[in-house]
Amino acid sequence: QVQLAESGGGLVQAGGSLTLSCAASGRTFKDHYMAWFRQAPGKEREFVAAISRNGASTTYADSVKGRFTISRDNPKNTVYLQMGSLKPEDTAVYYCAADRRWTVATRSSEYDYWGQGTQVTVSS
Whose CA is closest to 108, among 38, 54, 8? Predict the structure, then answer.
């Protein structure tokens, strides 16, 4: 089992940057595909980015491609989401997710483990 804890959220002006972190417990972090999702008020949870077990492969939603970067540090059991050129529509609660899969998944139902989320608010 993996426990996840996000941090780094906050209030930022449009055009600004923010980096989220997700710390995982346990010794099996390297055996999990990791992803970030987000959920805005009144909307469904949506895929943001995912990274393979060894970090060699990354996948992004079209809405964040070129602005966000996902990365991981397996010895530190941590995955990151660097967010740049932020827009008000990026405002949401951001969730870290993990799953013991070998291929990318973009649906929230395909991930077994979730963090509690961290709020990101982008002001215009």
Answer: 38
Read off the pLDDT of each residue in 90-99 and give the average, rounded to a whole number.
98
* Tokens coding 88: 């008000």
Q: Which residue has the tokens 């055996």?
A: 31
Half-sphere exposure of 112 (CA within 13 A, CB side): 8
Calpha distance 41→10 (Å, rounded): 16
What tens digit of pLDDT does each residue of 15-67 get?
999 999 999 998 899 999 999 999 999 999 999 999 999 999 999 999 999 99
Burial grade of 124 (CB within 10 A; 0-12, 13-18, 19 or more) = exposed
> Over the range 38-57, which residues count as b (16 or more CB within 10 Å of their CB) and which as e?
beeeeeebebbbbbbbeeee
Angle at 79 between CA 61 and CA 54, to 5 degrees: 85
DSSP, res 102 = S
